[in-house]
């Protein structure tokens, strides 16, 4: 998308549509809608609709005026922004996306977005650019009758005294973050026959070449050489070969420590293996590689935004399929660190691939670990599809992560990793078993992973509920969400400035 900055007066902007936010300035239930512009022509155009009560300022409420008097724009979209007292840069990001998504069905290819009163700095401009990019994504690109609804141009309208040149970096940062989130969404959206482990590895290589990352791709021989018995146990049942992908970002000025290790679950299709899933909704298991896709999106943005920090991503890509070669309930596998694992349920496979991925990230020199995975339905039961579940073994590291979450605006909730839960995954014949039963399932999965990080600061993100939107939002299409990409990039900045 071509994104321009302009200080032209809003009423003089020539555009297919000008988007102006309307905030509710009331302190009670009676709405007090206020257009976020000092331009007299915009105030006049909105006056009658406000007086009639048709415009209230309710969040994402759209009102379109055609050929508005006194404006050069062909349309004026007055978009509700919610309560003024609750307005934030995170709401601005969503509204920019919602504004763009309002253009798409009308085949409007370019529009202008007016920075609201008092929101014209770098943070706001970045949020508008980022929101517009994420709003431009739709997941239905295999429909043969699909019309191209992509919006190709955006003009961000600044106050008269602003310096557009000084804000170009903010625009580019927003574009990078939005496009990187969309990369994750694109990968997750692909069906299992078009996103095998080898295809995922090829996409990682292509992205790495594009942004200057080092990329290594390994097959079965290397996985066995590394004694990744947990990872291999999942892969052994499929005709598709697994891939171990390692991406490295190391800027010249990066210190020796910290080194951020990102580990992603890349199960490109999860049938459950011998413990096969029910047929209903099994098609959704194409999304079980969302953790790996999240790390690819984050690595793209990190490579382009260039924090002074070494980052290593380890992606464990495989299918989980039933066959005569597949592992069976009751089998015992040996992970890379020598721990023995009793397989109780072959559908608890994500933690197996992550276990060896975490071990390998440690071996490669990571000092701080994060893994991301669509790991457990139990996390969805606990937090619905609203919050990502976060598990941490180090309070200081979690506080750094919490600051990153606050800057990203994503919704995440910390869950416990108390030692008492370890009792639930103790095995009678091995060191641990790969499931602790029904109760506390998201926690026991995290406790399993904790056994492979030793004393390194570690975060586990269970994105099972947040990686996919079953219903679209005004600011985000139905389908893959790209959850956690922005937060991981913010975490890299946080560690780089430690």
Description:
The chain is an alpha/beta fold and 498 residues long. The protein has 2 domains: 2-138 and 151-158, Leucine Aminopeptidase, subunit E, domain 1, CATH 3.40.220.10; 190-496, Zn peptidases (Aminopeptidase), CATH 3.40.630. The protein has helices at 40-52, 89-103, 122-135, 168-189, 197-211, 220-225, 229-235, 290-305, 350-363, 377-383, 395-408, 441-450, 485-496, and strands at residues 2-6, 18-24, 33-35, 62-66, 75-83, 110-114, 153-157, 214-218, 243-249, 259-270, 310-320, 332-334, 340-342, 368-373, 388-392, 412-415, 432-433, 458-462, 468-469, 479-480. An 8-stranded mixed β-sheet has the order 8-9-11-10-14-18-15-16, with helices on both faces. Strands 1, 2, 3, 4, 5, 6 and 7 form a 7-stranded mixed β-sheet that branches. Strands 12-13-17 form a 3-stranded mixed β-sheet. A hairpin with an 8-residue loop joins strand 2 (18-24) and strand 3. Helix 4 runs antiparallel to helix 8. The longest helix is centred in the middle third of the chain and has 22 residues, at 168-189. The radius of gyration is 24 Å and the shape is elongated. The model has no long low-confidence stretch (mean pLDDT 97).
Strand order within the widest sheet? 8-9-11-10-14-18-15-16
Q: How much of the sequence is in beta strands?
A: 15-25%
Note the main sheet. Answer: 8 strands, mixed
Q: Look at the structure and give the CATH class of the largest domain.
A: Alpha Beta
Report the average pLDDT across residues.
97
Find the CATH topology of the largest domain.
Aminopeptidase
* Overall tally of domains: 2
Query: What is the β-strand count?
Result: 20
Helix content: 25-40%
Shape: elongated
């Amino acid at each position: 998308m071509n994104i321009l900055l302009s200080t032209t007066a809003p009423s003089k902007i020539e555009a297919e549509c000008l988007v102006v936010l309307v905030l509710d300035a009331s302190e009670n239930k009676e709405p007090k809608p206020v257009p976020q512009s000092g331009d007299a022509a915009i105030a006049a155009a909105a006056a009658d609709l406000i007086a009639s009560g048709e415009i209230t300022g309710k969040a994402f409420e759209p009102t379109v005026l055609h050929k508005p008097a006194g404006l050069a724009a062909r349309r004026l979209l007055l978009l509700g922004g919610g309560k003024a007292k609750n307005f934030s840069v995170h709401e601005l990001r969503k509204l920019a996306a919602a504004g763009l998504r309002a253009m798409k069905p009308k085949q409007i290819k370019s529009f202008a977005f007016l920075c609201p009163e008092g929101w014209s700095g770098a943070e706001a401009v970045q949020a508008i650019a980022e929101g517009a990019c994420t709003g431009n994504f739709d997941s239905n690109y295999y429909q043969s009758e699909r019309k191209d609804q992509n919006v190709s141009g955006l003009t961000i309208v600044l106050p008269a005294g602003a310096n557009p040149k000084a804000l170009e970096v903010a625009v580019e940062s927003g574009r990078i973050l939005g496009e990187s989130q969309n990369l994750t969404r694109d990968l997750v959206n692909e069906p299992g026959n078009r996103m095998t482990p080898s295809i995922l590895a090829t996409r990682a290589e292509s992205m790495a070449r594009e942004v200057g990352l080092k990329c290594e791709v390994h097959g079965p021989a290397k996985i066995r050489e590394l004694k990744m018995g947990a990872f291999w146990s999942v892969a052994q049942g499929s005709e598709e070969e697994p891939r171990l992908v390692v991406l490295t970002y190391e800027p010249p000025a990066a210190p020796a420590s910290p080194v951020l290790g990102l580990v992603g679950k890349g199960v490109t299709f999860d049938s459950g293996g011998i413990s096969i899933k029910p047929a209903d909704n099994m098609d959704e298991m194409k999304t079980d590689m969302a953790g790996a896709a999240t790390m690819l999106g984050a690595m793209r943005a990190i490579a382009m935004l260039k924090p002074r920090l070494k980052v290593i991503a380890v992606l464990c890509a495989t299918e989980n399929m039933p066959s005569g070669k597949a592992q069976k309930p009751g089998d015992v596998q040996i992970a890379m660190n020598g721990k023995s694992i009793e397989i109780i349920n072959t559908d608890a496979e994500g933690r197996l691939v992550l276990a060896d991925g975490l071990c390998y990230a440690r071996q490669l020199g990571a000092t701080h670990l994060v893994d991301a995975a669509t790991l457990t339905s139990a996390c969805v039961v606990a937090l619905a599809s609203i919050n990502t579940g976060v598990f941490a073994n180090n309070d200081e590291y979690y506080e750094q992560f919490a600051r990153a979450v606050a800057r990203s605006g994503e919704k995440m909730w910390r869950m416990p990793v108390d030692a008492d839960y370890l009792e639930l995954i103790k095995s009678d014949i091995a060191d641990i078993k790969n499931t602790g039963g029904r109760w506390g399932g998201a926690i026991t999965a995290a406790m399993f992973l904790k056994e492979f990080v030793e004393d390194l600061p570690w975060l586990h993100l269970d994105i099972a509920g947040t990686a996919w939107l079953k219903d679209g939002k005004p600011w985000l299409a139905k389908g893959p969400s790209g959850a956690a990409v922005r937060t991981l990039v913010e975490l890299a900045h946080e560690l780089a400035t430690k």
